[in-house]
């Protein structure tokens, strides 16, 4: 029980990807399989076994009734799927991209609302003042009481000059575009997007800390913690700015965990190779 309690939760991103996208099998449309294809496919007693190049599972299938090619593709024709840490990083980066997508929707809606208000400022301003007056009259207060909270912020917004609102709308729209660029770049795992996200997120951290000094809310604390986690992940796990070996270390990890060397290390021996010399079939010349 103590040993079981010390076990760490392990997520197999390879199995997760295969459950979502299907196994990465190669050579299923080939008419024949050669001995040198044993890394990706093997044939035993009329059944073909195809190796998933992502999760290393072996899938049994019947030979194709209408093959489209004579032999499985060679190594230089195969695009290996991500696995290991590079695959984990793709999931984390896409999770950050989803966070940026939420920002894009919220900021985009806010920018549209600002520009709509500027366009119809006089009508909307009168409506807002009328609502504020009705609310104040409903609670029995004086007509010119200074509002607090949401009503106070709303009163400040409608009182701003059109030029100020246009500048604010432009800044919000520009930041929404920036977040959209980050989102697309992170989704496709671009290195420049990691740097852009790190810089854009780090620049806003002091503002978020200052906001907490004025008023602490669960939403502000959550947003700060998320952004701190993103900055730490990009800086240390993705080795930005040369940290922990930088880009060279990233490429080495990718090559080690997603290249053919990783495939070979995870490949079980063939049936004959697994047998002892005494168990192997002997050729007529006496060579096992």
How would you characterize this protein structure?
The chain has 288 residues and is mainly α. Helix content is 59%, strand content 5%. It has eleven helices and three strands. The chain has helices at 2-5, 13-21, 84-119, 121-138, 149-158, 162-187, 191-214, 218-237, 246-258, 260-265, 271-274; strands at residues 41-44, 47-51, 58-61. Strands 1-2-3 form a three-stranded antiparallel beta sheet, with no helix packed on it. A hairpin with a 6-residue loop joins β2 and β3 (58-61). α4 packs antiparallel against α5, α6 (162-187) packs across α7 and α7 runs antiparallel to α8. The longest helix is centred in the middle third of the chain and has 36 residues, at 84-119. The chain starts with a helix and ends in a 14-residue tail after the last helix. Residues 137-144 and 273-288 have low confidence and may be disordered.
**General form:** elongated
Query: Spans of 5+ residues with little confidence (pLDDT < 50)?
Result: 137-144, 273-288
**SS element count, helices:** 11
Q: Can you count the beta strands?
A: 3
Task: Report the structural category.
Answer: mainly alpha
* Whole-number mean pLDDT: 83
Helix content: 55-70%
The run of helices and strands is: HHEEEHHHHHHHHH
Strand content: under 5%
Give the N-terminus to C-terminus distance in angstroms.
Answer: 48 Å
Alpha-carbon Rg, integer? 30 Å
**How are the strands ordered across the major sheet?**
1-2-3
Biggest β-sheet: count, sense, barrel? 3 strands, antiparallel
